[in-house]
Specification:
Blueprint: H1 6-21, H2 26-43, H3 45-58, H4 64-83, H5 85-90, H6 93-98, E1 100-104, H7 106-114, E2 119-122, H8 129-139, E3 142-145, H9 155-163, E4 168-170, H10 174-185, E5 189-192, E6 203-208, E7 211-216, H11 218-226, E8 229-238, E9 242-249, H12 259-274, H13 289-294
Parallel strand pairs: 1-9, 2-5, 2-8, 3-4, 3-5
Antiparallel strand pairs: 6-7, 8-9
Length: 307
């Protein structure tokens, strides 16, 4: 009897769990996140430490107790997002749509298309970005970059979930950038992750909460060649009830041809989204990693493995 490779077995188990959770109501998933978030806080030193370090960097005025409470809330929301993946990708579309309680700022997208312009949606890791993808691809021709999952067995599941409402996923390379440009020239919408550190050579250092973070420079290149409108989009979680979609005007600096100025505007857009509810941002992402890599003499470099 041939045994299934371990990584395939793990992928199958994860996909099975998503399918099971897709049947659960959002209120029940939110209740479960109280347990899973608490477990992550207690057992995952990496997630807890990175979140606390990031919060200390961006909210230095808060007390240790306030940041500890925000860390717990943030890890609960991140846990909720993971639990909700089955809902966003596998639940009947009418049920996902029913969980979208309101859409604020849709006129920003409709107005751009009436003007004959494409729309670039900056979608930070806030709330449930998969629900945002569901809504966007349900209402507009929508293209986004996609990097295959590290667990190859999950790749077809994830791609099907993200594409099921009509989204077009393109690779994170030159061919993908060309596809984004074509979509914008067709006056369509595209999605960009504005808060993911790019590889060396593909970004610049720009302030994020008054501290330099390495930020991608793809946006000004797309704007310069297409005159697209830029907005920030998020799916804000209303705990136990559903989501509210928000489209926010972009900081005007994103339209600058100067890479640093544009990147500063992009980070300001992410800050504005976070202000809606700081607990819903994915603070466990190592946003300042490349600053630490460049400054190896930092006093806390010995703790780099935790950041």
């Amino acid at each position: 009897m041939t045994r299934m490779p371990r990584h395939n077995a793990r992928a199958g188990a994860v996909a099975w769990l998503w399918r099971r959770l897709a049947r659960w109501p959002l209120a029940r998933l939110w209740r479960l996140s109280r347990v899973t978030g608490a477990l992550v806080y207690r057992l995952s030193e990496r997630e807890r430490s990175v979140t606390q370090r990031n919060l200390a960097a961006v909210y230095p005025e808060q007390s240790v107790g306030e940041r500890r409470a925000l860390t717990r809330q943030s890890l609960r929301h991140s846990s909720a997002t993971m639990l909700e993946l089955g809902h966003a990708w596998m639940a009947p579309p009418e049920r996902v749509d029913a969980g979208i309680l309101a859409v604020h700022g849709r006129d920003k997208l409709d107005g751009a298309r009436r003007e004959g312009r494409g729309v670039i949606v900056l979608a930070p890791h806030f709330g449930n970005w998969e629900v945002l993808n569901f809504w966007l691809s349900s209402h507009f021709p929508f293209t986004a970059m996609y990097e295959p999952s590290k667990m190859a067995g999950l790749d077809p599941v994830i791609r099907h979930g993200r594409e099921r409402q009509g989204a077009s996923l393109v690779p994170t390379n030159a061919r993908g950038v060309a596809a984004l440009l074509k979509a914008l020239k067709r006056q369509e919408a595209i999605g960009i992750l504005p808060d993911q550190e790019p590889s060396w050579g593909s970004g610049v250092f720009a302030p994020f909460f008054h501290r330099d973070a390495y930020t991608a420079t793809l946006l000004p290149k797309l704007v310069a060649r297409t005159q697209a409108r830029v907005v920030t989009g998020v799916a804000l979680r209303v705990p136990g009830q559903g989501f509210e979609i928000h489209f926010l005007d972009a900081d005007e600096r994103v339209y600058s041809a100067d890479d640093v100025t544009s990147a500063t505007g992009v980070n300001a857009c992410v800050e504005a989204a976070i202000a809606l509810d700081p607990a819903q941002y994915q603070w466990e992402y190592k946003r300042y990693r490349k600053v630490i890599e460049e400054q190896l003499d930092l006093p806390n470099y010995r703790d780099f493995r935790l950041y």
